[in-house]
Amino acid sequence: MDATGAGISGAVAAGAIKDVTGASVISKTLDKLNSVPDGTGGMKPDAGYEFQKTVLNAAGIGNKLDSVV
């Protein structure tokens, strides 16, 4: 394979890593923003957010939104 082909595949791999890392940061941020005090000085996930995250996301609801206007 020539250098151009290797560069393209490397760029695609770097883009994929960036996407996964960005998604992880967003997920952790949402988890933190949707936490409530648990009464012992710690934090726990809000019940409504936890339901949406586990049940609705697992069912695939909202994953295929039509974003074309």
Low-confidence stretches: none
Q: Let me know the number of strands.
A: 2
- Classify the oligomer: single chain
Q: Quote the distance from N terminus to C terminus.
A: 41 Å
Number of helices: 2
Q: Quickly give the structural class.
A: mainly alpha
- Average the pLDDT over all residues and give the rounded result: 77
Essential attributes:
64% helix; two-stranded antiparallel sheet; mainly alpha; 69 residues; flat
Provide an overview of this structure.
The protein has 69 residues and is mainly alpha-helical. Helices cover 64% and strands 9% of the residues. The chain has helices at 3-33, 47-59, and strands at 35-37, 43-45. A two-stranded antiparallel ribbon has the order 1-2. The longest helix has 31 residues, at 3-33. The protein is flat and about 55 Å long. The mean pLDDT is 77.
Detail the topology: elements first, then pairings.
Elements (H helix, E strand, L loop, with lengths): L2 H31 L1 E3 L5 E3 L1 H13 L10
Antiparallel strand pairs: 1-2
Q: What's a concise summary of this model?
A:
The protein has helices spanning 3-33, 47-59, and strands at 35-37, 43-45. With 69 residues, it is mainly alpha-helical.
